[in-house]
Amino acid sequence: MKIAILPGDGIGPEIIEQAVNVLNALGEKFEMETAVVGGAGYAAHGHPLPDATLKLAQEADAILFGAVGDYQYDALERSLRPEQAILGLRKKLGLFANLRPAILYPELAGASTLKPEVVSGLDILIIRELTGDIYFGQPRGVRTAPDGAFKGEREGFDTMRYAETEIRRIAHVAFQTAQKRDKRLTSVDKANVLETFQFWRDIVTDVHKEYPDVALEHMYVDNAAMQLVRAPKKFDVIVTGNMFGDILSDAAAMLTGSIGMLPSASLDANNKGLYEPSHGSAPDIAGKGIANPLATILSAAMMLRYSLNKAEQADRIETAVKKVLGQGLRTTDIHESGTTKVSTSEMGQAVLKALA
Ligand code: NAD
Questions:
Q1: What Pfam families does this protein's entry cite (predicted)?
Q2: What pTM does this model have?
Q3: What domains lie within the chain, and their CATH numbers?
Q4: What is the per-residue pLDDT across 187-199, written as a single tens digit (0 to 9) for each?
């Protein structure tokens, strides 16, 4: 099995190093090959997603990705910015399903801004459609308004659209994922206002016929935002479109109070995937040795489960992470009084020890 390792920028290389150590400690035979991406790709080859990096990602069975972005690249034209690498990989590899668990380990209940009884033990999964919706719909741009109350004025416009196939395939991923969990799926839409999302609701309802063992509930996105903050534990799996998923998954991430803990997976139709922490490249703390590597280590666990068919090894890693939290070890971002502050590499070493 071949894994493409793309560390990227900022804290990317530091956290990826810890995850690679963990993969190496499992006693499996993985072929791992590293390539530059993001700002590092631009610096080395003049493009955030160099051809050789894309080729490696295409050939690999799975991709472990750190993060991209740095202030020094902010002035570049949009197509050369580091963030274009991740958009390019999603598009080129057809990674249409983004899985973001929001898990709050009881040991970290104090890290959330919500009351511990509301969030302690939270374990939900948001599935966001990643390659469609208003983010990619054409036409888009700035033009002179052809009609409406502001006819003749300059206006910005985008197009929200979803093809039936796009909705069906994400719905199948969502139902199948729910089958492996608590068998409850909430489909989030805005069917009361948007034609696109009435269509979404109709198709999800139709796909549900193939999964009678999963309880399906439809919810409007405004209500879903409210319920996520009011009673997040009542959700199991949430499936939604690209834009609503972007916003809701960040809200869900912050329920846990610790962006440094949250992994993510972006899958294609054959479960090949790109695995990365939910956070960015954190240039403010890069090189200081204080970044939390657990989101990346947990992303490696997701990679084993979803793309490499090694659920047992995934369980081993997740158990090891729980163990180090139980031991009171904390990086700066999740540190509280009464716990022991550790560096990025000390946290990585502790996970290795817990694995053994
Ligand atoms: P960020 O997630 O990088 O950082 C937000 C805050 O969280 C910062 O204070 C940072 O120090 C902290 N943080 C993030 N990860 C952490 C970790 N593992 N341990 C401890 N603290 C952590 O978001 P941002 O500051 O908005 O963006 C920084 C750069 O990252 C930008 O260039 C942005 O475009 C990029 N970015 C990349 C991705 C990606 O690669 N997929 C995603 C989001 C943002």
A1: Iso_dh
A2: 0.90
A3: 1-96+268-356 (3.40.718.10), 97-261 (3.40.718.10)
A4: 999 999 999 999 9
